[in-house]
Amino acid sequence: MTAPFGRRLCEVAGNEATGGYRIFSLLDREGSAPEPGQFYMLASANGWGEGGGRPYLPRAISVAETAPAKDGVRLDFLVEGVGPGTDRLCELETGEGVWVTGPLGNSFSTPKQVNPDAAGAILVGGGIGIAPMAIWRRHLVERGIPLRVLLGFRNEKHSGGLNELFCAGETLCPDVRLATEDGHAGHQGYVTDLLVTMLAGDDAGSAVVYSCGPPAMLEAVRALCAEHDVACELAMESPMACGFGACFGCAVAKPGGGYMRLCVDGPVVRGDAVAEVAHA
Amino acid sequence: MPDFCGIPLAHPVINASGTYDAIAARRVFGDELLESFPFSAFVSKTITPEPRAGNKPQRIWETPAGMINSIGLPNKGLEGFLAEDLPQLAELPVPLIVSVMATNREDFSRMVDGAAVRDEVAAIELNVSCPNVHSGLIVGENPAETEALLDALRPLTEKPLIVKLTPNVANPEAVALAAEEGGADAVSLINTLKASAIDPVTREPALAAGHGGLSGPAVRPIALQQLRTVTAVTEIPAIGMGGISSGADAAEFLAAGATLVAVGTESFRDPNAGPRIANELETGVYQASSRL
User: Fold this and answer.
1) Which of B28, B207, B214 is most worth mutating to test chain A (most A CB atoms within 10 A of its CB)?
2) What are the distances in angstroms from CA A152 to CA A96, A107, A211, B284?
3) Which of A36, A50, A240, B116 is least surrounded, with the fewest CB atoms within 10 Å of its CB?
4) Does the pLDDT value for residue A70 go beyond 80?
5) What domains can you pick out in chain A, each with its CATH number?
6) pLDDT of A51 over the 60 cut
7) Which helix H or strand E contains B146, and what residues bound it?
């Protein structure tokens, strides 16, 4: 399914605080429903680049959840204000306009598409990277595929989205485990600590790992999976001006040399298809 | 309907080289891209004699009203381009301009020869923002180098040759005149302005290559002035570009003597910016710029 050509104006349907993050929703009357892992290029219609200054370029934001809506599709995005673009997205008010291009990029493969012997999935999300794990978790649950979800946050301030994206009623979904670096919830430490334990288990080899999060975490996930010979798909991020293959900014190094463009060759990439997840 | 070097075009808005990959865009947007193609002619990314992987990331950096890029001309090389990309670009509903670059005259000749013999190619743009390995001089920064290159390339084809001018010189009009003297059919300007960004915390350059080229509305007044100085002294048509993001911007460039305008960075923000700008130009629906 291709994206409608060009950008289109969508209306903000809501914007709520969730911990240190925000979840805002757009009503998309033209595009098809996104697949898990896909992203959109977003820029508010007002207060974005006109008259100079920043933000100037649209921001690539992965979709966290979607649902049919009257006259279209509802798109939910999880954002944390970390700069002029995401700060502006955090301020969106219901009824205002957002320029939208997408859905863009590829999507996650089912465990059996990755490995015909795979029986289940392990989802590893960190920080704002829990967003694509949420929509992917729902798709896997709907297909009856066994899964475990490991989510990590730095601290309470840099966390959010659990109630909206990973809860059944009042409580966290039973398949979800938490790790926080400050220990305010769940295991105190990295989410990859939980992955290490899980990969040491007997049935780890029959799982496929899916992950999204900060580059250092993704690299740890990639290396752990390589070490345990477990296939993984990583939803990656890279500086991106356009989202449709035009700017060549989102280069990611391939193992054999050369680069891929993350916007059109990703953002979901097999762990063995990247040289290393570059991180500071 | 503009006529550009004998090529009739539906409107005066084309793309800047290296800012639109029509093949990738067709994968993303489907054939809707062809049905309403955003430009009246398509300029390819610059092709070099051999394949290039491009620069290490970080490649782009947002700046006030613009961005710096140091992409490094990733491309499949002449053979790969002719075999794989050209047949796909030939399916576009508009004339095709192929951008080429090389670091010596022999290779440049091979590039022009290779592209010119193909019927799919309507015109060739020469990216001269590169050193001549023999002299060490950036061709496009030096009038004599530019004229000598045109002397070598002009006899190879009757197809229009467009010289892409660099803004990183004190007198772009001298280079433009040299290009005209050497037989160029047109000039296009501006290329990006040399620029850099430094992370204030690490004090390291933001881009892996250290520096890059600035584009976007931030460069528009500079581009406009360079266009004015060039069109004041040359007879050949000029393609004006540099931060154009609306019909009003395009109107400024046409008023400064451009025959066509090219859209680059704005397409990153709006993949369908071309028709919007062309339509604003045609209807004249834009406001005079305010002094307040």
Assistant:
1) B28
2) 32, 22, 11, 54
3) A50
4) yes
5) 8-104 (2.40.30.10), 111-148+160-177+194-273 (3.40.50)
6) no
7) helix B143-153
What is the chain A residue with the closest CA to B57? Answer: A251
Shortest CA gap B273–chain A (Å)? 8
CB contact under 8 A, A6 and B20: no
Q: Could you tell me which of A184, A200, A157 has the C-alpha nearest to residue A192?
A: A200
Q: How confident is the model at residue A280 (pLDDT cuts 50, 70, 90)?
A: low
Q: For A106-143, how does the pLDDT look when each residue is reduced to its tens digit (9 = 90+)?
A: 999 999 999 999 989 999 999 999 999 999 999 999 99
Mean pLDDT of chain A: 94
The structural architecture, per CATH, of the domain B3-57+76-197+219-283 is Alpha-Beta Barrel (3.20)
In a mutational test of the B interface, the residue from A50, A237, A247 whose CB has the highest number of chain B CBs within 10 Å is A247
Count how many pairs of residues, chain A against chain B, have C-beta atoms within 8 Å. Answer: 134
Over 60: is that where the pLDDT of B291 sits?
A: no
Over residues B13-29, mean pLDDT: 97
- How many Å apart are CA B78 and CA B99, to the nearest integer? 11
What is the per-residue pLDDT for A201?
Answer: 84
Closest chain A residue to B59, measured at CA = A249
Kindly determine whether residue B60 and residue A55, on different chains, have CB atoms separated by under 8 Å. no
**Looking at residues B128-155, what average pLDDT do you find?**
92
Give B36's contacts in chain A (Cβ within 8 Å). 5
**Out of B53, B217, B268, closest to residue A259 by CB:** B53
ipTM here = 0.89
CB B73 within 8 A of CB B102: no
Cα–Cα distance, B254 to B250 (Å, whole number): 6
**pTM to 2 decimals?**
0.91
Q: For an interface test with B, give the residue of A1, A5, A48, A252 to mutate (most B CBs within 10 A).
A: A5
Task: Report domain extents, chain B.
Answer: 3-57+76-197+219-283
Q: How far does chain B reach from its first CA to its final CA, in angstroms?
A: 35
Query: Angle at which helices A215-227 and A191-199 pack, to 10 degrees?
Result: 10
**What is the tens place of the pLDDT at every residue in A7-16?**
999 999 999 9
Give contacts of B267 with chain A, Cβ < 8 Å.
Answer: 242, 246
Cβ under 8 Å to A: B residues 218-237: 218
Q: Which residue has the tokens 């990183």?
A: B168
